[in-house]
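pinned: reference chain
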Amino acid sequence: MDTTAVDPSTPLTTGILLFDGFEELDALGPWEVFGAATVQFPHDRVLGVAPVARELRAAKGLRVVPDCELAGAPPLDVIVVPGGSGARDAAKDPRVLEWLRERSARARWLSSVCTGALLLETAGLLRGRRATTHWAYCDELEQRGVTVVRGERYVRDGNVVTAAGVSAGIDMALWLLGQLRGEAAARETQRYMEYAPEPPFGEG
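pinned: its structure tokens
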């Protein structure tokens, strides 16, 4: 699939996979980025996609209702797979794995945040690729045969982009937006979000 910038008049659809126990910021960080971009590109949209269209409870207790079930999702330009305590259960769901395999073949970009990379690996979508994940799970991902890149906020290999833990998904999504809509549009979205991290305690 072509990963070059898209004509501004072409609407883009981002699908964020949701499941019980997903890590809130893994999903909502990218959601904010792509959602904020609709200020400039009002025909774009962001959808929550889940195995079943019912209320879900995220890892920290947030309750959300997805927009559609897997089978009912429209064609997606970008797929975002979060991690979280529920990612291992999602990786055991054949519906999720098959959906990822099928839809990733047609998407412009496939991405994950945190332990969402483990879900991608289970689906066979990281074979022969470089990737990253949350620092606490890099060893596990490496033991599964993936070439793990440590110390990077996000790693691109072809049309697959994996982000490290939690907040790194925002950086990844902004970079993806730059690839899709151009750097100027991504910078304007970053400014709109007032995204300029200055953690009070420095690096962990």
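why pinned: The helical segments are 24-36, 87-90, 94-104, 116-122, 138-143, 168-181, 183-192. The mean pLDDT is 96.
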